[in-house]
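User: Batch of two.

Assistant: Item 1 of 2:
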Amino acid sequence: MTDAPRLDAHAALAPRLGWLLFAVALLPRLAHVWFLRDSPLTGQYVPDVSVYLYLAKKMVTGGFFFVHPMLMSPGYSLFITPVLATLGPNVPALVLLAALLDAGSAVLCAGLAVRIAPAGLEQRAGLITGLLYALCGPLLFNALLPLAEGPAIFCLLLGVTLLFRSPGGGKLRPYLGGLLFGLGCLLRPNMAPAALLLCLAWSLPGAGGLRRTRLHASARFLLAMLLALLPFMAHNLITEGRPTPFGLQGGLTFHMANFPGASGTGDSLPGITHTPYIEALEAQAEASRRVGRQLSLAESDSYWMSEGWRFFREQPGQAAAHLVKKSLLLLNEHGRDPSVDIDFCRQFSPVPGLLAMPISLCFALGAVGLWRRAGKTPEAAALAVALVWGAASVVLFLVTPRYRTVLLPLVLCFAGCAVAELPALLRLTTRQGLAPALLFLTVLGLGNIPLSALVESNSAAEEYARLGRYQFLTGHQPEARAAINAALTLSAKEQATPELELLQAMRQASLALEQAAITGRSASTNP
C-alpha cells in the first residue's frame, strides 16, 4: 500500500531544523579540519591527490581538453580547478571546502528523508537522519579526504533534491539538478546509470497530470545530465576514439577486483604497480605485451574488462562465492581500504573515532527502513533503486570503505525513517514484527563478521610504509625512519619483497640525509 500524495510543503524540511542540522554537522567537521591542519592528510599523502592536482593544473593552463588522455575520471580535477586557479595546490583549502559541503549534505540528506517518511513523521525522520549523518564518524572521515567522495555526495544529493522539488517549482530545477547529478557522476562514475533508474521509479507511478509533470521533469533532468557529460565524451572520442565521459581505467579496476584469489578490495597485478595514473600506463603496456601489438588506452581498458569477465565465464561457482564475499565486505563494520585506513589515521584526528556511529548499525537500520518504505512513495522508490544499483556496482567492482561512502546517505535516509517509526514498530504483533526484526539482526550480524575472516590484511604495515615514504619525500627524516621501522617490524614475518628492500634502503638514505644536513649546518656555523 502506497502513501497518498502530499503537498510539497509537507515534504520539506523545516528551515530552522535545516540550519540546526547544518550547525551540528559543521562543528565536528571544523574540529576535524583543525586537527588535520599540519598532518599528512592535508598534504599529498592520500593516493590520487597528486594526480588530481596535476590534471587540474592541466585544465587551468588549457593543456587537458582534447589533448591529454583521460586516464582517471576527471570530475574531482574539474571541481578543484577554481581553488587551484586562485590559491594554488592548497590541500587544506580543499579539505575545508569538503567540510562545508558535507555539512550541507547532512541537510540535504535530512530533506530527502522527509520526502520518504510516513505521514506525520516527516520532521522527526528528517531530524534523526540529519543527526545520523552529522555524527557518523566513518562518513565524516571519507567525505573530508581531499578526494571525490564528499563533493560527489553533495552534488548527487542536491541533484536529486532539485528533481524531486520540480513539480510546481518551475522548469529550471530539473535542469540544474541534472547538471549537478552529471557532475556527481564525473566524480563517482558508478552512479551514472542510477539516474535513469531513479527517474523511471519516480515518474512512472501514478496517473494524470502529476505523472506527466514528473515525466517532463525527468526528461529535462536526463537531458541536462547528458549535457554535463558531453564535453568529456567528445574529449575521449577525439583522443582515444571512444565516446565515454569517464576515465579509461574502469576495465583495469574491474579486473583488479575480479580474478581467482582476488580480495575484492583492489590487488596489484603482475607487471603493474599500485600507483595512481602510472598503473593505467603500465596496464596498457602489459596488455599490449600479452596481445602482441601496441594497444590504445581504450583498447587496453577493453582488454582488462574482458579479463575480468573471463573469471565469471570460466569459473562461475568461484565467481559467485567471490561476489558473496564482496557483499559481506560492503556491510562490514571495518572494511579494507588500500588507499587510507581510518583506524591508522586516528593519530592525526580523534574526531571520527569519537563519532563512532557503527556502519553495521547504519546498514541494519537502513535495511529495515528500506523494507518498510521502499514502495510507499515515488521518492522512496527512486532512492531505493538508486541505492540498490549503487550497492550492486560497488560489489561488482571494488568494495572499500571509500567507495561505499557515497551509498551511506541513501542508507541513512531509510535508517532515519526506521528510527522515526520505532514506536510503531514496537507496537506490531509478534507475527508482524518478525520480518523486520530478523532483517535487522541478520544485517547487523553479517556486518560484524571479523574482517580477517573475509580478507587477509596487513593494513597497519601498508599505512606505516606509505607514511614513511611521504615523510621521507617531504624532508621529515626522523618521522620517516620511525614510520619505516614500524612498517618493517609489522612485516618481519613476511618474505623479502622489492617493497621491503626499498623501505630498508629508504631508511638508510634517510639517516644519511639527516647526517649530511647536520654536517652542513655544523660547517656553516664553524667556517
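Item 2 of 2:
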Amino acid sequence: MSKHDAPKLDEELQELATQVASQMESFLLSVQAIANGGVTGGQAVSLLLLEVSEVLLAGGRLAVHTDFEPAEEYEPDPGPDPDLDEFRLRLGVLLESVDAYDEVFDPYVDPPEVVSSLLSDDLTSIAASLAHGLRHYAAGRVAEALWWWQFSYVATWGAEASGVLRALQSIVAHDRLDAEFESEQDQVAAADELLESANP
C-alpha cells in the first residue's frame, strides 16, 4: 500500500499520532545529543531522567487506548534498522560506573526475579523501537506506527523505560537525600561523583 493509499484515521487518532510522533522524535534527538557529548555524566543523568519520563507519558497514552489495528495483515518493511552501536558505546562511556543496575523483572512473580541490565543497552533498545515506528509514520503508515508503538510499549520498551527511570531516579535520590545503603555504597558514591560534576 502506497503512502497515498493509506487508510484515513479519524481526526482524534490522527492528532494522537501527531503528538506521539513528536514526542518520540524529540526523545531520539535529545538522547542522541546527550550521547554525542557536550554534557557531564551528572548532567546526562538529569536530562535522561526528564526524557525518559516524557516518553513514558507517551507510552502510557498508547497503553490505555483500545488496541490499534494495523492497516495490513503483515507489517510492511519499514526499511533497514539504524546502526546504534556507536550510540550505545557513547552512552556507556558517559554513564560510566552507574551504567549497570539491577531491577525486579516482574513484581508479581513469586519469588521475584532480579535481573541485571545496562542503562546504555536499554536506552539503545528503546531508541530502536521508537525509530522503527517513526519510519512507518514518516512513510504515511500512521495506523501501523500507532500499532507498533503500542505493541512494542507493552512488549518491550515500556518495561525497559520503566527500569531506566527507576535507576535514574535512584541516582538522583541518593544524591539529594545522601542515602546510604550498605549493599550499594559503591554505586551511591559513583552517583554522587557524577552529579557533583554537574553542580560545581
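The CA atoms of residues 112 and 127 lie 28 Å apart.
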